[in-house]
Each structure stands twice: as structure tokens, then as C-alpha cells.
Write a structure and sequence with these properties.
five-stranded antiparallel beta sheet; two-stranded antiparallel sheet; transmembrane helix; transmembrane; elongated; alpha+beta; 7 strands; membrane
Length: about 190
């Protein structure tokens, strides 16, 4: 649990304690009391999930199908420290006319050598002042060969050892579902006569 969430959790524990004390002394029927406890607990879970998305951590959700690449960072895996690495993208989703849809957002993808080379190439274009667009095609988990499934955390198992039950994320090792290209100009509506 993050230190930023600790005050939120403490506030909800206080609200739960107040609800419990009020339920013990009130004359309401037990079904009403139980409903209040269940409803409050549900709101705790919903607000926790909502608060985590406000912390600014990169999303592990699917990339939008069309986006402008703003910045990247590739973190190599470190077997000594036990980190799996990652590819971080700061993107701006685009609509069909190549115009921004929303605010920029950070995304995290599992690290692979081929994906990191592809992203590093796109970052070089950004550093040269070029605008870069990206396309992310959805892939079916069943279409990804077992060898292409990347580990989310931990070093790879040594020869003769079994994997230690780490989670896996289906993401193609060759980055076939992620392409970068020069940013096309926005498609503006036709102007009528003045």
C-alpha cells in the first residue's frame, strides 16, 4: 500500500467505526443496519480503486488504437535486483482526424528486447524533433505463442528451475501489435465559401 493511500484508508476505518457504533445503538431494523454496512463497504472498495488511478502510476490497460507518442523510457530487466523491466510510454490518444481525444496518459508494457529496440527508435525520432504516431492492434491471447509471453516480475528461471508462479501478460516479444510512424497531419473539415 502506498503512503499516499494511508490517510484515505484511515479515514474509511474511522467512518466504518462510526457506522458500527451507530448501528449498535440505533433502533433501526437489522436489515437496514446490514444494508448500510454492505453499502459502505462497497463504497470503500470503489473509492480505493478510483484513488489508485489518481496516483499517477502508469496504466497497464490496453493502449488506444491510434495515438501520438510524446515520450518513452525503457527500463532493462535486472536479474540481480529481481526486476523484470518495463517499457513506459507517454501518449496522447488520437481520433480519426489525428486530433487529440483526451489528456496525455502514461502506459507500462512488459519489457522485451525487440519492443525496447522499436521504442528506442521512436524515441530517437522524438529527440530529433519529429512527431511520432503509434498504432496498437489488439491481439488475442490465444494467438500469442507461449514463448512470446513475457514475465511481469522477477528474473527468468535458471536452467532446470521452474518458474516461481509470477504473473504473465500476453504481449508479443517482437512487438508486432505496436507500430510507430511519422505523425500524419490532422484531417481538418472542408471549409465552405465565405
Amino acid at each position: 500500500m502506498s503512503i499516499a493511500i494511508a490517510p484515505l484508508v484511515a479515514a474509511y476505518v474511522l467512518v466504518a467505526a462510526l457506522l458500527l457504533s451507530l448501528n449498535l445503538t440505533s433502533r433501526w431494523a437489522w436489515p437496514v443496519k446490514a444494508g448500510a454496512v454492505v453499502l459502505t463497504t462497497g463504497f470503500f472498495a470503489l473509492s480505493y480503486v478510483g484513488a489508485v488511478s489518481l496516483l499517477g502510476w502508469p496504466s497497464r490497460a490496453k493502449l488506444p488504437p491510434h495515438f501520438q507518442l510524446l515520450a518513452t523510457k525503457v527500463v532493462e530487466p535486472d536479474a540481480h535486483a529481481g526486476t523484470a523491466g518495463g517499457v513506459f510510454l507517454w501518449i496522447d490518444p488520437l481520433d480519426e482526424q489525428n486530433l487529440p481525444l483526451n489528456r496525455p496518459r502514461a502506459f507500462e508494457l512488459p519489457w522485451s528486447a525487440k519492443l525496447s529496440r522499436k521504442v528506442s527508435g521512436a524515441q530517437e525520432k522524438l529527440q530529433q524533433g519529429q512527431e511520432v504516431a503509434g498504432k496498437a492492434e489488439a491481439i488475442d491471447e490465444n494467438d500469442v505463442p507461449v514463448d512470446d509471453i513475457q514475465r511481469v516480475a522477477g528474473p527468468p528461471p535458471r536452467e532446470g528451475q521452474e518458474a516461481n508462479g509470477m504473473d504473465t501478460v500476453p504481449f508479443s516479444d517482437d512487438g508486432r501489435n505496436l507500430q510507430f510512424e511519422d505523425m500524419p497531419p490532422p484531417i481538418l473539415p472542408e471549409k465552405g465559401p465565405i
